[in-house]
Amino acid sequence: MPTFDKDDYLNGMPDAESLKGDPASAGSDQHGSDSKADKGGADDTAQQDTAKETDAVASDGQDQQPGSDSKQEDDLTPLGRAKKEAADYLDALQRERAEFVNYRNRTLKEQDTFRQHGIIDVLTALLPALDDIDRIREHGEMDDSFKAVAAKIDKTFEKFGVEKFGEKGADFDPTKHEAILRKPDPEAKKETVDTVVEAGYRIGDRVIRAARVVVAAPQKQ
């Protein structure tokens, strides 16, 4: 029987460096890597499925929200539904009433504007005749019958809001007076109306024609 030699047995075994190129060892390592990759892919697939389920649940929740109002209406009693309809009708009626009030106010304002323009057109056309009446009245050449006619004309214009202005001795106001002449006055302390050549007319704050006047101005030193 041969004798077992331990040193010869150990020397005959391959070392660690020679095992690196061993196909069996490489196959074992590759098998381990593939197992890990398969496990990682399975985990990714599971995460994607979970995300899809979460999105589906959220989408279902959003789809159900619009229907919640109709569900609440269905839950109302007949009296509750009647009250809700009455409130809706009242709101619509109030809106219509507000629109009508705005339309009426706008229409009335437009009517006043058109009316005022008509009065201005008539007054402008009659200004030369009114100036002649004032000149006749100033010179005292008006008989009783003509005075009555002139008074009726003045009252008619007053009825439509036409105001006549321009008086001797009044302070000169360039916004309503047109100075056709200025004459120095040693006694004047400020500019005043000395003579009214043609009277002015206005409607409210709107001047139709400025009064044409002669102005007495303080004498320059």
TrEMBL record:
Please state the protein's primary subcellular location.
Answer: cytoplasm
List all Basic and acidic residues biased stretches. 31-42
The listed locations are: Cytoplasm
Q: Where is this region: Disordered?
A: 1-83
Q: Which GO terms describe its cellular component?
A: cytoplasm
Alphabetized GO MF terms: adenyl-nucleotide exchange factor activity; protein homodimerization activity; protein-folding chaperone binding; unfolded protein binding
Q: Which UniProt keywords apply?
A: Chaperone, Cytoplasm, Stress response
Q: Which InterPro entries match?
A: GrpE (IPR000740), GrpE_CC (IPR013805), GrpE_head (IPR009012)
Gene Ontology biological process terms in this record: protein folding
Source taxon at top rank: Bacteria
- Family matches, as HAMAP family: GrpE
Q: What does this protein do?
A: Participates actively in the response to hyperosmotic and heat shock by preventing the aggregation of stress-denatured proteins, in association with DnaK and GrpE. It is the nucleotide exchange factor for DnaK and may function as a thermosensor. Unfolded proteins bind initially to DnaJ; upon interaction with the DnaJ-bound protein, DnaK hydrolyzes its bound ATP, resulting in the formation of a stable complex. GrpE releases ADP from DnaK; ATP binding to DnaK triggers the release of the substrate protein, thus completing the reaction cycle.
Listed under subunit, the entry gives: Homodimer.
Which family does the entry's similarity section mention?
Belongs to the GrpE family.
Database matches in NCBIfam families: PRK14157.1
**Which named protein is this?**
Protein GrpE
- The scientific name of the source species is Bifidobacterium actinocoloniiforme DSM 22766
Query: What gene name is given for the protein in this entry?
Result: grpE
